[in-house]
Amino acid sequence: MTAIALLALSGQHEIPSRVNCEVALQLAESKIPGAGRGIFVLQDVKEGALLFEVPDVLFSIISKECIATTCDKCFAHKSSYGQTDPRPDIRFTVCETCNVVYYCSDACKQAAWDAYHKFECPNLLKILSTVPGGEGIADPRSEEFRTMIRILSLQDAGMISDKDWEEIMGLRPQTPMLDGRPRFIRHIGEMLALISEHEITKLSMADVEKIIRAYFNNRSFIQLWTPCTLPLTNQNRFRTVEVPVGECLEPFFSMINHACDPNCVWLSHGRTLQVRAERDIAAGEEITICYGWSETLQDRQIKLAGWIGKCSCSICINPPREPTGRLRDQITRLVTARGAAATPSQARAISLQFAIRQMERAGFGLNAWPNRHLYSQLFRCRVGQYDGPEMLKTWLKLYYFVEPAMRPHECLSNRNRSLAVLAYLLDLNDPTYATLKPYPDEVIKLAPYLYYQLRVRLLHDVRQCHSKESYCVKFEEEKYEKDFGHLEREAESVGPRSERDYIPYWASEISTWAFVIDMNDLLVWAGLPALCDSQLLSMQVTMPGSV
């Protein structure tokens, strides 16, 4: 569906042509106090569905830390964490003129030069020739400074249309609260001084300051999903990582207002910015994202103060109970421990278990902060002790009981990572399994079938969260095909040989029955209550054909 121009309540506003809408959207006055305009859906949207995307966001800037490991044009990334591009021989070469940005190919280098770099390159060179390493707080190699250089260079060259420039100048600057922070004021002052000294723009410094302040209030962070290529060890259980590679400024995206428990999430696929549904959204609802994920009311309010002031959403007005006083201080010290104090030892495991019992005795539910931290760190201790059964028990509790209870809810991408950990804990052929304390016979009997069902679920959920063209989907598809493709085709061609054949649990009633029975047997083994069918079958997304 192409971008649709619709009437907003405050006048006629067009959805920019650069935005590809997959559902009908409307710009209208938000019902959130003080939010101004918002974006609304005009049709029902299913969880995981793509609402809109902005391809090739012009003001996407690689972070200083990732600049030598990420292509400035296509955002192909390769580092010690992993890579987002299937090319085995990918290498990055620096721009010979400014020595700042890197490219993965001559094609990307030329495309970037034509689109924006030939305008920003001389200005980068001009500033860096006098302050090569960055002086004071304002570093010319930082993403915020390079974003300003790109915006001002393109505007000065007439490469930004009047309509797009109007969007940029219409962005809301950060709230006055940040003016009370001396470091922030100094940061802006140093940026303005360098821009003025090197005559980067013909705009007034008042306009430049407005753009800088709007950038800090409207930027979004770019995290690229990548399969982890670090050696698989007991400590490294996560098969994927999200690498924070940079920031972007997209005015239309900035119109999405905040909710602590949002109905949408943004994802980055290279330079493409996508907005997907975190849950089912009814026609007429305003779409929202979370400006700052945090489980505690206090932390959320501090983070949000710089953007929207005091949040008055239902979760902030009526938040889950949190520990206070001495109990809060004790638990905070425990979950924020670093260095030797955080060593995954038996002593630390005992301390974490004691904290969990204290929370229970004080009447706090699983949705209370910091239960997720306590269980995830307890899992880390079990990993450090090579205790396979306790690792599995802890992660079952976290995935099926703690995360679903959280308010705000855990986002879909994090749920996928948790699902991946659970699935691979049941892989008896995993190279790390031989180093663990073994599972009892009853778990060994259940593991192969449940491992298959969780892997097929993971593939489905990854497809729900990402575009089919993304490397993360292609990677998961290739890995799944290697592990299970031939087994599924065999089961399909000859028919199921048993109720536990290689058939996804939502594809037949007998597979559904077998999955529910086996997973509940595993939960009971772990000392956890059995769950009803709907809790096991529809924990995250509505499965096709599920019952």
Protein traits:
547 residues; alpha+beta; 4-stranded antiparallel beta sheet; single chain; 16 helices; 3-stranded antiparallel beta sheet; Serine Threonine Protein Phosphatase 5, Tetratricopeptide repeat; 43% helix; 15 strands
CATH T-level topology of the domain at 339-537: Serine Threonine Protein Phosphatase 5, Tetratricopeptide repeat
Quaternary assembly: single chain
Helix content: 40-55%
What does the average pLDDT come to? 87
Count of runs of 4 or more consecutive helical residues: 16
The share of residues in extended strands comes to 5-15%
Shape: globular
Low-pLDDT parts are: 1-12, 539-547
Biggest sheet record:
4 strands, antiparallel
In which order are the strands of the major sheet placed? 3-6-14-13
Label the CATH architecture of the domain at 339-537: Alpha Horseshoe
Structural class: alpha+beta
For the terminal residues, how far apart are their CA atoms? 31 Å
CATH class of the domain at 339-537: Mainly Alpha
| Rg for CA atoms | 25 Å
**Number of extended strands:** 15
